[in-house]
Write a structure and sequence with these properties.
Layout (H helix, E strand, L loop, with lengths): L8 E9 L16 H13 L6 E2 L8 E11 L8 H6 L6 E8 L12 E10 L12 E3 L5 H9 L3 E4 L14 E12 L2 E8 L6 H13 L8 H7 L14 E7 L20
Helix pairs in contact: 3-4
Length: 270
């Protein structure tokens, strides 16, 4: 109970947002971010100040289809009606899709067992127009089979220092990648990645490395050796953020549907 007798409730929400409209998820001084808009719009709606705990910061320009965050509230809006009410105060670049009451101990970031990202390439000589904010244009021909061969080398548990840009605070470069799929849907090529954790710019560097393989600038057969060398300079470029989308976050128990960690090794995570 709080001092005024109202009971606090812990609520998790799933949000979708368009990266080009924001300078990342996390609140910053003098920048428009997803967290700031969500928190400020909740105050506009209810008069209550909240602090959101997010599953991922996401960089400026990166989109999310199912970003998970949570907060404590004394406002008694039924969770089934909460998304619709909240969305009336939000800009068109972000929407709350679902909400549910969670135990007080739930933490969207530290309870997450894995994430799925998609990096989108737009293939063709002419540049994209409508899709320009959500894909990376590649006008050259790609050897997609070589890209698939190279992708297989990243599967499993590895030291992924070679796929980490400077500026990362982590001291744990070993992560596990469980699924890497290249899907061709003309004019798009989608890279779908599922892993138990990602380093700073890791998916964007992975996408850049596979792109260099597809362009013949790197050889697929060399990727295992380059990964072992753990030298960022030997991999491909960090591709722009606009092609990247956080698709979903996985947990030990299903949260909003299709987000139950499917690999059964959550006990081993620390």
């Amino acid at each position: 109970m709080t001092h005024n007798g109202k009971k606090k409730v812990h609520i998790a929400i799933s949000c979708e947002y368009l990266g080009v409209d924001f300078h990342g998820y996390q609140r910053q001084e003098n920048a428009h971010t997803v967290q700031a808009e969500l928190e400020d719009s909740w105050f506009d709606l209810t008069g209550e100040r909240i602090i959101l705990n997010g599953c991922s910061r996401t960089d400026a320009g990166v989109s999310a289809r199912r970003h998970i965050s949570s907060f404590c509230t004394e406002i008694g809006i039924p969770v089934i009606r909460l998304p619709q009410a909240w969305n009336t105060k939000l800009s068109t670049g972000v929407a709350v899709r679902k909400a549910r009451i969670m135990p007080a101990a739930f933490n969207p970031r530290f309870d997450a067992l894995g994430k799925e990202y998609t990096y989108s390439f737009y293939l063709g000589r002419s540049r994209p127009v409508i899709e320009r904010f959500q894909s990376h244009h590649v006008p050259q021909e790609l050897n997609i089979e070589s890209m698939r061969e190279a992708a297989s080398a990243f599967l499993g548990n590895h030291d992924f220092s070679a796929l980490m840009d400077q500026g990362s605070p982590t001291k744990r470069p070993c992560r596990g990648l469980y699924s890497l799929i290249l899907e061709e849907t003309d004019p798009f090529l989608y890279l779908h990645v599922i892993g138990d954790g990602f380093l700073y710019h890791m998916v964007r560097i992975l996408a850049g490395t596979l792109l260099y393989v597809g362009l013949g600038k790197l050889a697929a057969k060399d990727i295992p050796r380059l990964l072992l060398l753990a030298d960022r300079r030997l991999m491909g470029p960090t591709l722009p953020p606009n092609g990247l989308t956080l698709e979903r976050v996985f947990y030990k128990e299903e949260l909003f549907g299709s987000d139950l960690w499917p690999y059964g090794n959550w006990q081993e995570k620390s």
